[in-house]
Amino acid sequence: MPRRSPALDRATPEVIAVAALRILDEEGPGALSFRALAERLDVSHATVQRRCTDLAGLLDLCTDHLAGQLPEVPAGTGWDEACAQRFGALYRLLTAHPGLLALRGGRPWLGRQLLARLVEPALADGIAAGLTPAAAMTAYRRMYLLTLGSAAFVDHRDPAGVTAASRAAIAALDPAAFPALTGALADVLPPLTDHEVYYGALRQLIEAARPVPGPAAP
Known about the structure:
- The chain is mainly alpha-helical and 218 residues long.
- 68% of the residues lie in helices and 0% in strands.
- The chain has 13 helices and no strands.
- The chain has helices at residues 6-10, 13-27, 34-41, 45-52, 55-67, 79-95, 98-104, 112-128, 133-153, 159-171, 179-183, 185-188, 195-209.
- It starts with 5 loop residues before the first helix and ends in a 9-residue tail after the last helix.
- The mean pLDDT is 89.
C-alpha cells in the first residue's frame, strides 16, 4: 500500500480553504501565497501545491468552500422568494471576503458546490415556475452579475473608509467640470455603501423576470 502523508492528511482542501480565506480577510490579497499558507498550516510549500497545483486551484478551493455555505431553499418556496434567498446569501458571502473577489477577477465560478447550491436549483426552479430554459438562464445570469458586481465595487467591510476616500476624490475635482458630483456630495456618497441599492436592484430583476402564468386549462 502507498504510504500516507501526515501533512496531506492534515492539510485537507477544507483546511486549506479556511486558512487561505483567513489570510485574505486579515491581511489582504497581496499576502496570500503558497508559502504564507504553508507557514500558517505548519506544512511544506510542496504539500500545499500538491493540493492546489497553482493559485487558480487555490482560489477554486476557497470559492467552493464558500459556496457550500449557501442555503438549501426548502421545497415549495415561491420562485421570487427563492431567488431573493439564494442571491442575497451569495451577496453576503461575497461582501464578507473582498480579498477573494479581488484575486478571482472575472474567472468563472464552476465548482461543484456552487453548481449544486445555486446554479442547478435556480434553473430548476425557474423552469418549474414556467420559464423556458433560456429565460431561466438569462434571469440567473442577470442576478448573478448584479450580485458579483455589487459585492466587488467597494469593500463593504469598511464603509467609512470607502466614503472618506470617495469624498476626498470628489472634493479634488473642478466644480466647473463636475457640477453634479461636487454640487451634491452629501447625496451621492451614501448610495456607495448602502446595501439596499443591491437589494432594491435584485427585487427589480426578480420582478422583471417573474414567470407569467399561462392560460387556464378549459
